[in-house]
Amino acid sequence: MRFSSSLSSLSFTSETSSDGVREQLFTLDGIPGVLWTPDGAVGTRPLVLMGHGGGQHKKHPDILDRAHRFVSELGFAVVAVDMPAHGDRPKVEEYDRLAAENQARIAAGAELAPLVAEFQALVARQTVPEWRAVLDAVQRLEHVGPGPVGYWGVCLGCGLGVPFVAAEPRVRAAVLGLGGALASAEAAARITVPVEFLVQWDDERVPRADGLALFDALGSAEKSLHANPGLHGEIPAYELDSALRFFARHLG
Q1: If pLDDT is split at 50, 70 and 90, which confidence band does 237 have?
Q2: How far lies 132's CA from each of 10, 116, 178, in Å?
Q3: pTM
Q4: Predicted pLDDT at 117
Q5: Could you give the C-alpha distances from 44 to 62, 79, 226, 235, 252, in angstroms and in order?
Q6: For residues 34 and 103, what is the distance between their CA atoms, to the nearest angstrom?
Q7: Separation CA 222–CA 212 (nearest Å)
């Protein structure tokens, strides 16, 4: 079913329903996003913003699976948007140029981690205000409301999520991981909400020491480290069960 409605500058473009989960695609000032809520939902509920990984998009199968479980098992709302130059968003000439330059530097022997950190810091200056605007708009919806907010993001979703969580007082809890301290240590020190942090012990993209340093940099009094064997993309399925329990505990 397709329809068009708007609230402030948020415009819905389509709506579908499957297994008790309502999915609404929207745009907000040119930012494409998707909102999942329980079918027939009314009133205020917890909301989780999910940040996808590098090269992915707002409806990547991993995001979709997590969102459906958060909605169907907890009754939460979940929102995800395409990050700059991802999904349905246009390419960004500056980002393409930097990516090409970084590839050349790596080929010449430069270390990957500092280049990733520099790039993520640049993109975060755009995504942090974008995500805050998305929260503003979505929380005005009658079937979401101004309830408690959580954040979930690993890999690029962690690199951009750490400065977002540090800047956004509405976020009460976060699941982060597969990111390193070079990109986010300063912002991580400003995070005081509970955090569940994922590390893949054999991560080929983020050096183990860098991931552990980011966990150590978090200013949260309540933080837990979940370290599992395996490569960057091999997070065990049971970590989703843990994330569900974590957010249910902290968001209600």
Answers
A1: very high
A2: 13, 23, 23
A3: 0.91
A4: 76
A5: 26, 15, 31, 32, 12
A6: 32
A7: 16
Provide the residue count of the chain.
252
Q: Quick one: CA dihedral 184, 189, 191, 195, positive or negative?
A: positive
CB contact at 8 A, 156 and 51? yes
d(CA 224, CA 116): 25
Give residue 20's region: left, alpha or beta (phi > 0; psi -120 to 50): left
Kindly give the interhelix angle for 181-188 and 156-167, rounded to the nearest 10 degrees: 20
Task: Record the tokens describing residue 116, joined without a space.
Answer: 């990733």
Residue 153 CB neighbour total at 10 angstroms: 27
In the chain, the percentage of residues whose pLDDT exceeds 90 is 75
Q: Both tokens of residue 191?
A: 């995070």
- Rounded Cα gap, residues 223 and 194, in angstroms: 5
Asked whether the predicted pLDDT for residue 8 surpasses 60, the reply is: no
Q: Are 172 and 250 in contact (CB under 8 A)?
A: yes
Chain mean position to CA 110: 28
Per-residue pLDDT reduced to its tens digit, 106-129: 788 877 777 777 788 888 889 999
- The widest CA-to-CA distance across the chain, in whole angstroms, is 56
Q: If you ran DSSP here, which 8-state letter would residue 17 be given?
A: E
Predicted pLDDT at 1: 30
| Pair of tokens at residue 158 | 């962690």
